[in-house]
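Structure, all two chains, one model.
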Amino acid sequence: GAVVSQHPSRVICKSGTSVKIECRSLDFQATTMFWYRQFPKQSLMLMATSNEGSKATYEQGVEKDKFLINHASLTLSTLTVTSAHPEDSSFYICSAILELIPNNEQFFGPGTRLTVL
Amino acid sequence: AQTVTQSQPEMSVQEAETVTLSCTYDTSESDYYLFWYKQPPSRQMILVIRQEAYKQQNATENRFSVNFQKAAKSFSLKISDSQLGDAAMYFCAYRSPNFGNEKLTFGTGTRLTIIP
């Protein structure tokens, strides 16, 4: 299947700093990417939908000024956690779809573990 | 809004035996997609099986099969001949068929343990 990568896989930062997470589709062009957040022993919660060349669509309750999403190309979406705080510590997962057809599959990245001290 | 419910936080099964994981969902849409994803300790999400609501036939992928009951809004996963590598978190997920609304709504997950 298609491959989606994330970088970094783990990041530890100090409170108040910003962290950028990259999501890349390695062998296909992804018009749409999704960003999920997963707390320990919990499910994946969709944070936002990222469309290439346009503004991301955020889910209710997600602060768009805190979680900046940029989808500048068909193979790269970035999530920047601005002024990170310990409560932002979580596992962040991206996924991508090849093209906008009804039964297409979402391919998931391996995730990024963010720890804010 | 759609909701997905997995009522079994944990399940265990003896190796080589069969186990069924439950999932129910709520939607007002008549057509949609349902998925089972596996998340092993590596945290990589892996698609196990997919069901399209307009198809009456239950999906099957090798040792994995589903029991899709549309009227009851139930979508259970059966794993036959369980193997040690099946140990993981399993998430049921719903997706609307609408163009531009491909986001997945996940259940809370079931942790499956395989007993050697």
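Residues 4 and 90 of chain A are 19 Å apart (CA to CA).
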